[in-house]
Design goal:
It is a single chain. The chain has 9 helices and no strands. The chain is mainly alpha-helical and 149 residues long.
């Protein structure tokens, strides 16, 4: 997840993150400060977090749903936003119900625009037209085989 976030902000993670990027050192420093603050805040509050485990699971889910709905209404009060919240909630429930892993979907949503943009840029170049056509045909065949199964 962290690597996907780096790439979304244009940082290429790896050994050259600090020498090539001016914001790399600031990023590492902010992560260090955030971890220190979490440690300072969570050590005294361990008892509170343990008592939260005693709350029944349906009540926790109801509280999360109420706060998510309130946050959505506070950010942008529209029926479309609430419908999206409900739709993603149902999708998450079904994914959990049928044991579908959630993490790859979240990474796909974060990284989705990057490969799409690079594929479109490659298809715009004249030398890659043949490659793009072959790739599109291959993709169609793979989807057809996948849906046939």
């Amino acid at each position: 997840m962290l690597l996907a976030g780096f790439q979304q902000y244009g940082l290429n993670p790896g050994p050259l993150l600090l020498p090539r990027s001016r914001s790399g050192l600031g990023l590492i420093a902010s992560l260090f400060i955030a971890n220190t603050m979490l440690l300072v805040l969570n050590l005294p509050l361990v008892g509170l977090w343990v008592r939260l485990l005693a709350i029944p699971t349906p009540w926790l889910y109801a509280g999360i749903l109420v706060f998510a709905t309130m946050g959505t209404i506070a950010a942008k009060p529209s029926v479309v936003e609430l419908s999206m919240l409900a739709g993603f909630g149902v999708m998450g429930f079904l994914m959990r119900r049928f044991d579908y892993p959630v993490a790859p979907v979240v990474v796909g949503l974060i990284l989705g625009p990057s490969p799409k943009a690079s594929f479109a840029a490659r298809c715009k170049s004249a030398s890659a037209i043949r490659w793009c056509c072959w790739r599109a045909q291959c993709r169609r065949r793979c989807w057809a085989l996948r849906s046939w199964r």
